């Protein structure tokens, strides 16, 4: 609880540290980084006396107890897009269950997590229980993955790195690995959606906030053909109205792309999309500013076919693919037509259709008549090549405990 209070007290300083690292717009960073992290520490502090063992329904002359024991040492590797928020998702439940943690931030975004380690020490966490270790993935990350004294590895990042962590686990001590590997999330808009302009505005922010650098971003827009042109025009208007600029300027709605390398990769995805038959209806290029920096205009590409790279591959940038559909069955087939399964969105006024879509979409999170946003009471995780395990909610605690059975003859 003291850690949560300190994070809140230093919220602006922590947010600015993160913005200087990764370029997230400050207004969003304040809520998503220290705001979320404080809430996460407080949630698991409040959960501690609600988590108990079990008494099994055994025979009358035997007492069966199921106890939760700390796993030991947890290694956590977190990405650069929301380091404090995602770091808290790993740290708070792991510490709450009695484990020690070694956390490696991304090379390009470590400042806020280094400060968090100091806050935790100031609040009374014993020395050595939390260690924040900087360095490259190839060296520091690999050392953690191979270490024989790490009992559980938790990771948010790319699929390629996730595979290497699983291989390292097999080579070392078979440590459990929980991986959150991103997505290519569908956002389905049916013609019966109540307010198309609201749906367009929320859908725009669902992909363009933080310059598209959000794992659950609604990066594949599927629109019923009868409203396709109208909806794209509404969406384009909202996208072009967004102010992209200095993330420390409170009037900026979209900040910077994380790096020059990421910006180049984003632009290359657009070039390939056009080569594969897509049409750029807005954005598609770099925004030049007086102060320099890596900025990209919110980009919408229509006519994206299922086989296209932009339909299948995660960009992790402000690039939205748009694909029309005719029927509900076709929409669901398209929604499930990638290797990923992290998040999804459905816009409809038909309650029965909403429930059918939630049931049939292969994803860990399905938003209905909204996109993005959820608190600590519900889990976040994916299926398929979006990974395994869950952050947030009481379910996250399961990653950080071993179950121990006591079988007592009475």
TrEMBL record:
Entry-linked SUPFAM superfamilies: ALDH-like
GO molecular function, one term: aldehyde dehydrogenase [NAD(P)+] activity
Active-site residues, as the UniProt record annotates them: 180
Superkingdom classification of source: Bacteria
Gene name per UniProt: puuC
Coiled coil: none
Family the entry assigns: Belongs to the aldehyde dehydrogenase family.
The Aldehyde dehydrogenase domain, residue ranges: 2-405
Protein name, entry field: Aldehyde dehydrogenase PuuC
EC code(s) of this entry: 1.2.1.5
Keyword hit for Oxidoreductase: yes
Pfam families attached to this UniProt entry: Aldedh
InterPro entries: Ald_DH/histidinol_DH, Ald_DH_C, Ald_DH_CS_CYS, Ald_DH_CS_GLU, Ald_DH_N, Aldehyde_DH_dom
PANTHER family: ALDEHYDE DEHYDROGENASE-RELATED
Assigned keywords, A-Z: Oxidoreductase
